[in-house]
Design a protein that fits this description.
Order of helices and strands: HHHHHHHHHHHHHHHH
Number of strands: 0
Number of domains: 1
CATH topology: Growth Hormone, Chain: A
Helix content: over 70%
Oligomer: single chain
Number of helices: 16
Shape: globular
Structural class: mainly alpha
Amino acid sequence: MTVPETGTTADRFPAAPGTVGRGLLPLLFLGNAAMFALYMGVGSVLLPLQIEHIDPSSKVTNLGIVAGVAAIFATVCNPVAGALSDHSGRRNPWILGGGLAAIAAMALLGSVHTVLLVAIAWCLGQATMNVYQAALTSVVPDRVPRSRRGAASAAVGLGIPVGSAVGVVVASAFSEHLRIGYLVLGLLVAAAAVLFTAGARDVPPPPQEPSPLGSQVRMFLEVLREHDFRWAFIGRACLVLGYFAVTGYQLYILQDHIHLPAGLKPEHAVAILAPLGAVTMAISTVTGGVLSDKFDRRKVFVAAAAVLAAIALVIPVFSPTWPAMLVFAALNGLAFGCFIAVDTALVTMVLPKAEHAARDLGVLNIANAGPQILAPFVASAVVSLIGYTPLFLIGGALAILGALAVAPIRSVR
C-alpha cells in the first residue's frame, strides 16, 4: 500500500518541508546510544555473568529462560506504550518517565541473587525501557519529513554501535562489581532522557476523535494485513532472530567455543569485539543512510546488508578462533549498521496511518522483541543438544530469509 499524501507523517512536521528541527538528530543519536548501552551492556555481559555466578552448571539454560521471559514483557510493553503515547499526543513524558524508571529497575536487578528474582527484575527493566523506546522510536515519523528519513535513521542507527560499545566496555569494567555496572547503565539512560526532553519539543498531534477500545484493538491487529507493512515485519523478524540467537550468547561462545589467546578473559574479549564492531557499524550506518537518501533506494541496501550478515555468521563455523571472531565482528557490524539505518527509513515509509505512528511502530517492534523471545530458547536448545557451530549456521540462514523478505514490498524502491 502506498502511503497517501494527506495525513502522512510529514504533515505533522512543524518546520519547513525538508528541514529538521535544530538539535533533533544529535538528540536522537544520544537517546538511542544510551538505550543500546543498557541493552547490550546488560544482555551481553552483566546478565550472563550474574546468572553464571548464581548457577554455573546451568548457565546456558538459565540465560535462555531469563532472556526469553523478559523479551515477552518487551513484546507486550512496546506496542502498548506506543499506543498510550499516541493517545496522550506526547512523546517526551514517556521518554522521561521510562528513562528515570530505568535507574530503579537497574538498581533492583543488581541487588538480587536468585535466577527467579533476576528474571523478575529484568522483566521490570524491559518494561521501563520499552516505554522509553516506544516513544523515542516514534519521534522520527512524527518530526522528520520523508526526504530526511535516511539521515534521521542514520542518526538513530549510529546510536547502536556507539551505545553498544560504550555499554559493553562499561559492563566489562564492572565485571567484578555487577551492582555498580547496572546502576551506571541506568544512569546513562536517565541522563539521556533528561537531555532529550529538555532539548526537543513535542509536536502536538492533529485532533483525533476518541475511538472505543474494541475498535483500537481491531486497528492494532489489522495493521499486519497491510501488504508492505507485513513484509517489512517479516524481514526484520528474520534478521533480528538470527542476530540475537548468536549475540545473546557471545560471552558463553567465547568461554566455551572459541580458542582465545592465553591471558585473554572472555569478558575482556567482548570488550574488544564490541568497539571493533561499533566502528564498522558506524561507518555503514552513516554511509547506508546517506546513500539510500541520495539514490532514493531502500530495498537493495537492506537486502545487501542481510546477505553480508549471513556471510559473517558462517565465518566462525570454519574457524572457531580469535582472529576469525575479529573478522566476524567487523563484517557483522558493517551488515547490521547498514540494515538498521536503511530498514528504519524503509519501515517509516510503509506505516499505514501517520496518526497511529507509535502504535504501528509498536507492532513492528514486535519484530524486534518477538524474535528475542524465541532466540534465547532456540539458542539454548541448539547449544545444549548439538553445540555452538549449528547456531551460526541457523543465524546465517535467517539473515538470507530477511534479505528475501524485502523483495515483495511495493511502495518503497
